[in-house]
Fold this sequence. Notes:
4-stranded antiparallel sheet; single chain
Amino acid sequence: MANPSLRVSAPGNLPVTYVSKAALATCARLRAARDRRDDVRSSFLTWIQADGLLDQPRCRDDAPVQVGERVSLAYDAATMMIRAVEALAARLRHANPRQRWDPRALNPLGVHVEVLRQNAEQGFPGVAGPIRFAPDSGEPVAKRISLMRVVRVPDVAAEPVEVFHCGVADGEPDPGCRPA
Length: 180
């Protein structure tokens, strides 16, 4: 599914249903989020539609290339780490404003602790849905996971359709598992 050139060579009538952690980041859902003024997804949509960022811009009317779930998941992970590093660096500068900046003051453990601290406060509003971790185990809490269906695998421009899901979409109460 992730390789358009391999999808094109698949048998013409081959349907597929697969598990996705990024059903909320399809082109249709991103456009709907932009219309609802969802800043997180609108910003992501602007980035992936821009020339020069991805090998092919995504979700544009003139180039109907789908976004692909790995793009939104990687974006969420990178953005969560960047927020943690920025907050940690700001806290270190504020604690000692006259001290010259030492990049070694940031280390993996400190960044990990900052991610957990931010998560304990409010979680992270990801493109692929809210990200929260259980404080005792570090496992995701109510993370959206979906069954997606593509009617014809070779149709690279066809957007997958969510047919079943578990977990939350946008800070709503966890609806449990149900058909989409």
